[in-house]
Amino acid sequence: MAQITFRINPKPTYSERMTDARAELRRLIKEQLCDSPSLTLLTGAITHDNTATMSWSRRSYMKNVVTRYRVRIEGWPLSEVPFRNLSDVPNLGKLELLLQGWKEGSIRFCQITEEQYLAMIHDPTPWIGPAIDDAEGEE
Q1: CA-to-CA distance for 13 and 131, rounded, in angstroms?
Q2: Which of 27, 42, 50, 129 is deepest in the core (most CB within 10 A)?
Q3: Strands, E assignment, the chain
Q4: Per-residue pLDDT averaged across 33-55, rounded?
Q5: For residue 48, what are the CA distances in angstroms to 11, 12, 23?
Q6: pLDDT tens figures, 58-84
Q7: Burial (0-12, 13-18, 19+ Cβ within 10 Å), 38
Q8: CA distances for 19 relative to 34, 98, 104, angstroms
Q9: CA-to-CA dists, residue 71 to 9, 38, 49, 113, 114, angstroms
Q10: Which letter does DSSP use for residue 84 in this model?
């Protein structure tokens, strides 16, 4: 017969905390990217498109976010967390750093001018870091 174990005061495991942090980050990013009523009242959504989705590969981000909406992420801590799919962020500390930045507004979407767009098309490295394997998954 199998023994069943119960946690008396269930404290989330490290893995559960990572999953929760990723889910909250995805929710915040989607909310800021889309036309979210709760966010629009405070700051205005950046795209005004409730079907907008975030893309994480360099090529898809440039096409589906930057080119389509003329917005980019500002404040991403590239020296500490490479710009990539949140599923590929290796530890809770890095996810919490991103989460704190999005919550505080130090990481955010910003509309860009045509001049800024052309500079970013020429070389997006200052905003999303150096090119890595573009086969990385979308989210």
Answers
A1: 33
A2: 129
A3: 71-74, 108-111
A4: 71
A5: 39, 36, 22
A6: 999 999 999 999 999 999 999 999 999
A7: exposed
A8: 22, 14, 21
A9: 44, 20, 13, 9, 10
A10: S
